[in-house]
Amino acid sequence: MCCNHVNRRAFLGMTSGLLAGAGLVAHAAEPLPEWPADYWDPERPYRPAGAVLKVKPLLMYATPERRDAASWKSWSSILTHEAAAQEAERIAAELSALAARAGFPLEILPVAKVTAPEAAAEALRSGQDVAIVYAATGSGTLLRACLAGGERTIVFVRKRSGPLYYWYEALSVRYLRASAAAAEGPDQPVVSVDDVVVDSQDELLWRLRGFFGVRNFTGARVVALGGAGGKYAADAPAKARERHALDIVEVGYDELAARICASFEDRGRVARAEAWAAAYARLPGTAIETERPFVVNAFLLYGIFKDMLAERRASIFTINSCMGTILPMARTTACLTLSLLNDEGLVAFCESDFVIIPAGILLHFVARAPVFLHNSTFPHDGIVTCAHCTSPRRMDGARYAPARILTHYESEYGAAPKVAMPEGQALTFIDPEYTTGRWVGMRGEVIDNPFYECCRSQQDVRIHGPWRRLLAEIRDSHWVMAYGDHLRAA
User: Fold this and answer.
1) Residue 333 contacts residue 389 (beta carbons within 8 Å)
2) CA dist 136 to 60, 75, 373, Å?
């Protein structure tokens, strides 16, 4: 019966009976694996996924010999092995301090002191994700050898943060690409002038944050329930696989139907979902304004989706036909369920839209916090309304924002959070142009949490900067947002 389509009135009566006597019709079925009480735990700290970023520092230098009545040294005092050893200690200490405050997992490999191209080549075989070339002294040949690690390379030079580096003066387009966007060619350097940092540890950190995002975004595995799609761009899944190597694992609704039926008939799982729903209702700032069975069933769906991710060793989930197929099957909507997954550190999107999902994955790893996939509106007076029914509540990666749990707007069915974001909250947005590869990034701030006749979680946002340029970017498609300013890293 739980797999048949039922209307809302029948659903409410049937579910009440099911919750009161769960398992009475399932006496012959094998018990399902029990969900531990802390499978969902609102007290657990936010734990975003993400593999560690391995960083290899290379200190390049030369040891010239003094010559009488001749120029024998370059700028910088790092001209001896002793001076280089002191500088290597300084670099290691700076990077250790940076890793401690990074907010994402960094592994700093030992500093390689490099005086010859062969030593540079050996250092670049360390299994690093990113190389930082500390270009103190040395020849152009040595510099090119140190830059041979490719595009995941940062060049660091000192002016005031320690001993002056010779290459603070000598870096130029003779060794570097004129810009990251410059045309590629067989003789063009891969590392560009945009990859150079002078003194600033903060600038070094946001670049490493960007590399962390790319390292975890590229090749990420995504479970796509109901198949992969693209809003107004049928080629979106193929482009996501081709450009970003996304491993999209498509799962059919037949599998979900079997899991839902079995879970509805399992006394232990229903009891666990009821307990979770009761605990959720007790969270400060939570108002349940939909039928309780919708919320209980959203937690049953939560356990099922989490199982599907664990079995496929994935942390990213999306669901197709989330405004149709799943409603009669799950006797709720997936809105609250997706919000719950995002709130604990997983990544969950509605609509299986692979136009926006790649941008959402990247922004999640850069921000190390939940992201909110939403519709946008026509910009006016610098304001855009952002609305959807699946907003996370822990957008800052810590506290649960106040929320009213209502029905999903279009269906007036199920459970969907209306989240109140703090007014004045800084935001970062990404708006992809279908599958052209062109992404528009924006900054903004929350100015209101209205209650228009549209998707439940809704924010009026003031766009920072020349907002009229957005008028030419209207695509009737999705945006993704995160708290904070992450444009440089993203």
Assistant:
1) yes
2) 6, 9, 45
Contact 155, 178 (CB under 8 A): no
Contacts of 400 (CB under 8 A, 6+ apart): 42, 283, 284, 285, 286, 343, 393, 394
CA 108 to chain centroid: 22
Q: Do 407 and 416 meet the contact criterion of CB atoms below 8 Å apart?
A: yes
Task: Give the residue among 133, 138, 188, 123 at the shortest CA–CA distance from 156.
Answer: 133
Distance (Å) of CA 342 to CA 339, 360, 480, 482: 5, 12, 13, 12
**Type and span of the H or E element at 426:** strand 426-432
What lies within 8 Å, CB to CB, of 274 at 6+ separation is: 19, 296, 299
CB atoms near residue 118 (< 10 Å): 10
Phi and psi angles of residue 157, each rounded to the nearest 5 degrees, phi first: -130, 155
SS3 string, 51-105, reads: CCEEEEEEEECCCCCCCCCCCCCCCCCCCCHHHHHHHHHHHHHHHHHHHHHCCCC
Distance CA 344, CA 38 (A): 12
Query: What is the residue-level pLDDT of the chain in tens, covering all 490 positions?
Result: 344 433 433 333 433 333 333 333 333 356 799 999 999 999 999 999 999 999 999 999 999 989 898 888 899 999 999 999 999 999 999 999 999 999 999 999 999 999 999 999 999 999 999 999 999 999 999 999 999 999 999 999 999 999 999 999 999 999 999 987 776 666 778 999 999 999 999 999 999 999 999 999 999 999 999 999 999 999 999 999 999 999 999 999 999 999 999 999 999 999 999 999 999 999 999 999 999 999 999 999 999 999 999 999 999 999 999 889 999 999 999 999 999 999 999 999 999 999 999 999 999 999 999 999 999 999 999 999 999 999 999 999 999 999 999 999 999 999 999 999 999 999 999 999 999 999 999 999 999 999 999 999 999 999 999 999 999 988 888 999 999 999 998 8
Q: What are the φ and ψ backbone dihedral angles of 68, each rounded to 5 degrees?
A: -70, 140
CA distance 77 to 84: 9
Give the separation between CA 366 and CA 48, rounded to whole angstroms.
11
The rounded distance, in Å, linking the Cα atoms of 85 and 62 is 12
